[in-house]
UniProtKB/TrEMBL annotation:
InterPro entries: Glyco_trans_2-like (IPR001173), Nucleotide-diphossugar_trans (IPR029044). Belongs to the glycosyltransferase 2 family. It comes from Polycladospora coralii. It comes from the Bacteria. The lineage of its organism: Bacteria, Bacillati, Bacillota, Bacilli, Bacillales. GO terms for molecular function: hexosyltransferase activity. This is Glycosyltransferase family 2 protein. Residues 7-134 form the Glycosyltransferase 2-like domain. It holds the Pfam family Glycos_transf_2.
Amino acid sequence: MADPLVSVLIPTFNRPKWFREALNSVLAQTYSNIEIVICDDSTNDDTERLIQKYLREFPQIKYYHNETRLGQFDNDLKLFERAQGEYINYLMDDDLFAPTKIEKMMAYFKNDKEEKLALITSRRHIIDGNGKIQDDIPQTRPVFDRDMVIIGRCFADYMMGAGNCMGEPTTVLFRKKYLKEPFGTFAGRRYRCNVDMATWLNLLLEGDMIYIAEGLSYFRKHPEQQALSDKMLIGGTIDYFHMVLYGLQVGLLQESNYRHLAIERANLTLKYLFYMVPRIAADYPDDITEIMQLKLQLEKNEPVPIKNYNNSEMKQDL
């Protein structure tokens, strides 16, 4: 029986050099049944020229150059719509896969006969513009020191208090049919900044996950990345309050410790926003109104505890 098809989805924008490195890291995968779907949102044809020799050599590559620029969110959605695989892994055009990434993750999916797993993630490394591994930041430090299977809802609770320890889209391989809302959407709302966390929450509501302790992807940090503009900081704060509020409404954060940590993190994002954008009330009145309305709704929300999870229920050695 043939291995299940995995769709690797690459959104790209005006970065042909790093795009080529990203693409080569997919072509070097030890897992064979992969389709590569590329949506080019570039304002020039540099990437289109580069891709031509690949298209002649590798029939598994599908390439689309958008006639008009879509932006990151809609470009990601276009990729998802064109994916034919049962499993999905996005690859940002400046990131890299380790050669065995898909093979090691798919080994767990193929053994999951009851289809309890929604996603598989791993440790990831930060690299600089030259590909040199950098020191970890809090979100990239190892979550566990060995491979673990984890109850999806438990990790969702943990993640809302800890931040995005799951990883960027490059890091996670997920089961396509378990994503019930569009990529980057949670509780019917398109997220403005935390699109990855919105997606992981949706998946964790549907099934469990595996964390692989080995670093299987590389997240590149470099000067060309989009800076943390005022609008991104505002969007991230709105996202976080919405995430916690609607997480409660769908039955997450019922254990008090997790709930308090998530609310505390949302409040810290607001405190940081006021520090970074001191004129927010004057310059962005509609946004600050939305934030304060979400904050007020969250303060009024008093969920009834459903269950307290202990560590043995949350995780299991593999």
